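User: I've been trying to design a sequence by hand for this structure and keep getting stuck. Would you show me what you'd pick, starting by listing the structure so we're on the same page?

Assistant: Good idea, let's start from the same input. This is the structure you sent:
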């Protein structure tokens, strides 16, 4: 499901509202909820806005869809970005779950929400076109929840949730900006995002703005 917005501020507001609604919906049923988010510049305004929402943050856990193998203080760290933009103020009460085998194993089997981004090469999370283990990362059904990724697109080794793990969610959102990314979404070819778009397990809500 593709929704087009006239500007990025409106797409950001829609993504924030959708995430909040999904978290509240799960918390209405369960004592706790967990969600996963991507890093990068695109979702940062969403994190800043979500941090201001009056959620029961002490009942929430958040993890990353992917991460670079760098220290948290490194500007390339997605955890660092999350701590600066989301886990602040009252939202600091949320529990951060690192993207490790142990951390992912302790997440609920089904997440309340997943917020994805996408690159112009059609990668999402850290499932890059040139990754040697891309097939494992995109396998449906898949046995793995997390994989290590090496790509020429990044100087740092990465870890990524697999597509099978990302689909285990109530709410799946892809936030993308720019005409180049819209072109990939409309004609994904053999890129990784083609598998995401073509899967029939979970409704994918695509929010796009120029």
């Amino acid at each position: 499901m593709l929704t087009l917005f006239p500007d990025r501020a409106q797409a950001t507001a829609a993504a924030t509202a959708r995430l909040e609604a999904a978290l509240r919906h799960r918390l209405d049923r369960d004592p706790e909820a967990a969600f996963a988010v991507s890093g990068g510049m695109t979702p940062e305004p969403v994190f800043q806005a979500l941090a201001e929402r009056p959620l029961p943050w002490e009942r929430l856990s958040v993890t990353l869809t992917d991460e670079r193998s760098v220290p948290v203080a490194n500007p390339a760290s997605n955890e660092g970005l999350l701590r600066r933009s989301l886990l602040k103020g009252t939202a600091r009460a949320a529990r951060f779950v690192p993207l490790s085998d142990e951390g992912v194993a302790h997440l609920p089997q089904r997440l309340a929400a997943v917020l994805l981004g996408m690159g112009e090469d059609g990668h999402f999370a850290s499932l890059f076109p040139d990754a040697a283990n891309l097939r494992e990362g995109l396998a449906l059904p898949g046995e793995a929840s997390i994989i290590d990724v090496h790509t020429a697109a990044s100087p740092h080794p990465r870890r990524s949730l697999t597509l099978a793990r990302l689909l285990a969610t109530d709410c799946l959102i892809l936030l993308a900006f720019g005409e180049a990314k819209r072109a990939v979404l409309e004609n994904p070819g053999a890129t990784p995002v083609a598998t995401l778009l073509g899967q029939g397990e979970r409704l994918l809500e695509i929010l796009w703005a120029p």
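That's my pick for every position. To get oriented when you compare it with your attempt: The longest strand covers residues 172-177. The chain has one domain: 2-178+197-209.
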